[in-house]
Design a protein that fits this description.
The chain is α/β, with parallel strands linked by helices. It has one domain: Rossmann fold (3-Layer(aba) Sandwich). The protein has five helices and twelve strands. The strands form three sheets. Strands 6-3-2-1-7-10-11-12 form an eight-stranded mixed beta sheet. It has a two-stranded antiparallel ribbon with strand order 4-5. It has a two-stranded antiparallel sheet with strand order 8-9. Strand 8 and strand 9 form a beta hairpin. The radius of gyration is 15 Å and the shape is globular. The N and C termini lie far apart (31 Å).
Length: 187
């Protein structure tokens, strides 16, 4: 039997595909501007940033700016058994296609502990203003986020947001939801 989250993921993936390239490009640019202009970004020394796919707001400008600002930048790398680690990267890091077709650093010799991250920028299929995020369902981010006290910032274009999303005890709520329209403090 299909769960409510599984059913909703299917609907949201189709919605994302239906968004125009013009809309997503504009939304991605405004979302990146909001992240870079935020107090949470400016004060963070170590930033964890997902590497975006076509189904998610683009993080390439955020990554470039974090490198230019001299921040310690780390990205996710997934391992067997649902484990994910934050790997420090540079503008010269080599990537390979990793789990679920997402680019991951080839080398993982510079792992950053979750408790050393100041700002975690997290992907989603959808989010609501209460800080509930609906991811792709593998649980990698929730397991990693349980270990960090970092500010949890989820990026979600306005047309992908929901009024309310299903929530389970193991789901980690976001502190901030960033869309092209602004930054919402969850709760």
């Amino acid at each position: 039997m299909q769960t409510e989250k599984q059913r909703l993921r299917g609907i949201l993936k189709e919605r994302r595909k239906s968004l125009s390239q013009t809309y997503t490009d504009c939304a991605d640019e405004r979302i990146a501007d909001r992240v870079i202009g935020s107090k949470e970004y400016r004060t963070a020394q170590t930033v964890f940033v997902y590497i975006s796919t076509v189904q998610e707001p683009d993080t390439s400008r955020i990554l470039q700016k974090a490198f230019a600002d001299g921040k310690t930048v780390c990205v996710p790398r997934c391992y067997e058994y649902g484990a994910m680690k934050a790997v420090q990267v540079s503008p010269y890091t080599e990537y390979r296609t990793g789990t679920y077709g997402i680019p991951e650093p080839v080398d993982d010799d510079r792992i950053i502990a979750p408790w050393d991250v100041d700002l975690a920028i997290i992907p989603c299929l959808s989010a609501d203003d209460a800080g509930v995020r609906l991811g792709h369902g593998a649980g990698y981010y929730d397991r990693w986020l349980e270990q960090t006290a970092a500010v949890k910032m989820c990026l979600c274009c306005e047309q992908m947001k929901e009024d309310s999303l299903p929530y389970e005890d193991h789901d980690v709520r976001m502190d901030l939801i960033v869309s092209e329209n602004g930054i919402i403090k969850a709760g």
